[in-house]
Amino acid sequence: MSKLDTSFYKDKDEETINMKHIIYFDETIPTIVIRVIGECSINDAEESVKAIEAIIEEQGKSSVIIDLRRFSASLDKEVRKILQDPRTTSGVLKMAMVTPHPSTRILGKIATSIMGRTKDTGFFKTEEEARIWIKTSSALSAKTLNLRLLNKNKPRQDEEYSNLHKTGGNNGT
Fold this sequence. Notes:
By secondary structure, this protein is of the alpha/beta class. It is 40% helix and 24% strand. It contains six helices and eight strands, in the order E-E-E-E-E-H-E-H-E-H-E-H-H-H. A six-stranded mixed beta sheet has the order 1-4-5-6-7-8, with helices on both faces. A two-stranded antiparallel sheet has the order 2-3. The radius of gyration is 20 Å and the shape is globular.
């Protein structure tokens, strides 16, 4: 796992990136991981974009896990503009947002809808769920995965239907 220490990381123009958020490339998936800590200022957003662009330039297009568990859930209008700019996410394949907070999920869903990224963005309560989704084929939607995780101990509807036919329906015939 190659981790970017953003306290002294230099982007392609040799400008120093200095922020409290953590951004690194996880080679095991491979995916960019962003851990947002506290508020996200305009400076943080700009530096995050530079770091992400530098990773994508080095690694190629990549999926992104955005850990919002320690995020303050407020975004300035200018920060939203920076993060929603299509150029910001042009090298991003899939985005997995991790947050157990419904209010943060709502903000994330609004932002991804504005960005036109609803189909390739998933919202998860744990990073493990996000990693599973990133690893799966693009045909498996986040909603489908969430339903599978919730219902992993329940029989699937087609199994219930099959069992119903084997017993002859509700009346046992």
